[in-house]
Amino acid sequence: MLSDFGLILLFTLGGFFLFGVVMTIARFVRKDKPNEEKLSTYESGEAPTGNASVRFNNRFYVIALVFVLFDVELIFLFPWATVFGNEQFITETNGLWGWFAILEMFIFVFVLVIGLAYVWRRGYIDWIKPVQKENTFTTKIPKEYYERINQKYS
User: What is the distance between the alpha carbons of residues 117 and 94, in angstroms, rounded to a whole number?
Assistant: First the structure.
């Protein structure tokens, strides 16, 4: 008889085995005809332009973190609503359980709203395009040479 850990190990090994079988079958079934279109960078159906290693605005990461924060909040709200809304607990404690659950969740949501207000007040989620500064670099090379080079490669 296998222990619980033995069953988990057997299940894991079976998963790896089935993964290997599926990948082997896929290797023999699929077509392997690479071309320029298939090897290009995928940009949501648009034709790729420029280098693939483009620097993104840091605000993308801040927005993603705020989204994850409130997404995790919802993960905590659903079990709270099902467990703490149990009528048996509320009747056994003469309603104190229900008031405790409501107060606890209001405190939880209040802390998250304070965090959102802080992020909003500091301007971390304001989407402002960066201002491009005028180039003040001076050089001895005449401007016409730069214009010729730009016309040649455009």
Answer: 36
